[in-house]
Amino acid sequence: MTPSRTLADLKDLAGKSLVYGLGSIILRGINFFLLPLYTRYLTPADYGIIAVTVTITAILSLLYPLGLHGALTRLYFNTENEAERRQSSGTIWVSLLVTAASMTLLLDRLGSTFFPLLLREVPFEPYIRLSIWIAFFNVLSLLPLNLLQIEERAGSYVLLTVINTLLSIGLVITLVVLKKQGAYGYLLGTLWAGILMAGPYLVLTLRRVQVILRWSILKTALIFSLPLVPHSLASWILDLSDRVILERFVSLSELGLYAMGYQLAGIMTMAATAINNAWVPFLFKTDATQGNAAKPGLARLATYYTLILSWVALASTLLAKEVLILLTAPTFHAAYQIMPWIIAGLLLNGLYFFPVNFLFLKSKTGWVPTVTVMSGLVNVGLNLWLTPSYGIIAAAWATLLAYTLMLLLVWFISQRIYPFPYEYRRLGMIALVTICLFALGTMLQSDSMVIDLGIKATLLLAYPLVLMALSFYTSAEKVMMLNFVQQILRGKQRTVFEK
Description:
mainly alpha; 21 helices; disordered C terminus
């Protein structure tokens, strides 16, 4: 892959990632600015209830579809014409509806019997019942959004998710702030947003699918997707099970602090997901057209991906305390103590996306649940062992250790299935600079928030310069960066002359 080809691919990926990312940034930005409002109408205990119910919704959103939507990308690119694609998509959609509706009705009727055995303080009625139905309406969005992603229609994808989230925010504000309904209002507003968005998602789906159920297609999809169900459950265990465990050992207020820290640290997941949404179709398309010849260029892109995520992680960690002070009520400020551990774990989870996509590329999905189940069991074991003694900080430690194990395992397995020439020297330099700048920012503390912000902003701006001093960039990359800057300047000059 030539430097010019790499630059073109990088610009294409960056453009699509930026669209996905901007949607997430806008939504997360709105939620950030709403934190001063939410944290004055929702107590830490309310946040604790919401954390538990969001966890229930998350696991049901994984169980309901049986991972079938995960097979859509593979089926889409393996079909030869539009008619076959519509039949494949239609079969998956009908199957999703049947499984999701059946499980939802079953849990709605029987959930009051067994959920109280699992949860100590959060009652089934109304909180858990609402979370069950929220999960059902979440499933309705899976196939249409997947199709938009496959078609590389990032703008439409983001528009729909933005509308959905803004609708949810509007309803939540109405019920929480105006009606003062607390955690119940938060969940009810989320449910009504899902109900109202079901119509647009249905219209979008019916325009792209043939409503049909073909066993041959379903069988192929199940062979691909069923191994992903334990993977998805293990992912839930890694990401959210700590909320359920904490609910048994700490107060709802402490659980609320943990949920707040995790919410703010979620910018890592947002950045990784935005890039991954653009990366997956690019990887499948590049492999289909170039094969192994594309590996050196892909390895270079892997280095850029790591650099971007590490920079985001450094910024999130250094600024965690100031963000909490500026955006939340004083009762939530202590959450900054757990955020560095969570952010580090989510960084490793973001890096895991890269090697795991090679397993999907080679249809070796059977290895994916092996990795996530092992890591999930480690996470649960550490939480059960450490949480009773150390509280919410132990859950943050467990998150970091479990994601470390998951990344190492999936890297090891993927290298044997799809040997990939990672640029280990440069990746090590990224890790070293990130850790050193974080340590420096932690040591250089003062009594003034303004001074602290200035120091941390300087460290963040110095990040690429330190890498340059260490000879991180290749000659070709320096030429690429120079050409990129020149293109921007020429564009500005043309704009000036046109005016």
